[in-house]
């Protein structure tokens, strides 16, 4: 067996491993991506080369290696108030509806939270709304941020962001109002926002029933990495834990259309969200 053939076999095995472990579908010719993202780990875990490391991964003994490989292969790109419109819909349409319907409590799930910017942006919009409309949104509120990667969740829990991250979406006014300076170039999200948000590790391929019910789910910029079957399964499981009339907000290039018929598109002034259809009796 030539080295090249062995590498191709290992590459195919690795693609299966990755899809089974976290849903991410690698194209047939993404060898360079695997090499560039995993080479560093071969040194860290003292393997002679990438082939040896991928072989070890197959034996599934080292859970730390497995975790670090998944970490390296996931894309954690995020920013504050990403794409603006989801946060405008939240402020202008969804929160007024929650207030009008007098919900007993409000639970929001940020399902691929990465380093926390999405979950904290939601918290900021809620506090701004409460400031603008005193007494209108007086109810217990919980934002749950989940991700498969412990590394990003550790950063999210700290709530400390550098200038580069702050420069990606935080206005001067919001910086002043919702952050305190932690060091010359670091900013800490205020305690009041931090207390609204909880972060836990969760693989979207797993069961969600233990999370309880939600009124709103942000699941943004993660379904794009998954196969059609996995997208469908995730969207159907999310529908099971949305309260009646609850909303799902996806990434700009994502849609439930073709994957689940349990949602209806709602066009708000600033963009679209997907509402859980009423269940048939
Ligand atoms: C591109 S980021 C999106 C972050 C944020 N939602 C946004 O739109 O800015 C995708 C996140 O999904 C997480 N992820 C990938 N596969 C996952 C899975 N199977 N379960 C849970 N999270 C996953 C990654 O760790 C990463 O932090």
Describe the structure.
The chain is 44% helix and 19% strand. The strands form two sheets. It has a seven-stranded mixed β-sheet, sandwiched between helices. A three-stranded antiparallel β-sheet has the order 3-5-4. The chain has helices spanning 3-22, 31-44, 50-59, 63-73, 85-100, 117-132, 150-158, 163-166, 172-178, 191-194, 228-240, and strands at 106-110, 141-147, 160-162, 179-183, 186-189, 197-201, 214-219, 242-250, 263-267, 272-276. Helix 1 crosses helix 3 (50-59), helix 2 crosses helix 4 and helix 5 packs across helix 6. The chain has two domains: 3-73, no CATH class; 85-276, Rossmann fold (3-Layer(aba) Sandwich). The chain is of the alpha/beta class. It starts with a helix and ends in a 5-residue tail after the last strand. It is globular. S-adenosylmethionine (SAM) binds next to loops. S-adenosylmethionine binds at residues 22-23, 74-78, 82, 112, 114, 118, 147-149, 152, 203-205, 220-222, 251.
Question: Could you give a quick summary of the protein structure above?
Answer:
This protein has helices at residues 3-22, 31-44, 50-59, 63-73, 85-100, 117-132, 150-158, 163-166, 172-178, 191-194, 228-240, and strands at residues 106-110, 141-147, 160-162, 179-183, 186-189, 197-201, 214-219, 242-250, 263-267, 272-276. Helix 2 (31-44) packs across helix 4 and helix 5 (85-100) packs across helix 6. Residues 1-6 have low confidence and may be disordered.
């Amino acid at each position: 067996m030539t080295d090249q053939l062995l590498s191709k076999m290992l590459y195919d095995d690795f693609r299966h491993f990755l899809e089974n472990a976290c849903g991410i579908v690698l194209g047939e010719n993404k060898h360079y991506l695997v090499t560039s993202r995993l080479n560093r780990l071969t040194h860290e875990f003292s393997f002679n080369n990438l082939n040896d490391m991928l072989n070890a991964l197959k034996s599934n003994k080292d859970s730390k290696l497995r975790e670090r490989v998944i970490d390296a292969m996931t894309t954690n790109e995020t920013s504050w108030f990403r794409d603006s419109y989801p946060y405008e819909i939240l402020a202008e349409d969804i929160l007024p509806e929650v207030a009008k319907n007098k919900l007993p409590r409000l639970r929001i799930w940020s399902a691929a939270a990465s380093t926390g910017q999405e979950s904290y942006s939601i918290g900021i919009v809620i506090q701004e709304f409460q400031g603008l409309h005193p007494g209108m949104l007086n109810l217990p509120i919980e934002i749950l941020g989940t991700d498969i990667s412990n590394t990003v969740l550790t950063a999210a829990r700290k709530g400390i962001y550098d200038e580069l991250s702050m420069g990606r979406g935080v206005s001067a006014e919001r910086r002043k109002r919702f952050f305190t300076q932690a060091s010359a170039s670091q900013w800490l999200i205020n305690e009041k926002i931090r207390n609204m948000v909880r972060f836990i590790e969760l693989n979207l391929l797993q069961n969600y029933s233990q999370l309880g019910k939600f009124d709103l789910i942000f699941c943004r910029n993660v379904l794009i990495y998954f196969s059609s079957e996995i997208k469908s399964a995730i969207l159907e499981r999310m529908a099971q834990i949305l309260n009646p009339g609850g909303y799902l907000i996806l990434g700009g290039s994502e849609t439930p259309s073709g994957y689940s018929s349990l949602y209806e598109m709602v066009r708000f002034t600033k963009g679209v969200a997907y509402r859980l259809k009423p269940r048939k009796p």
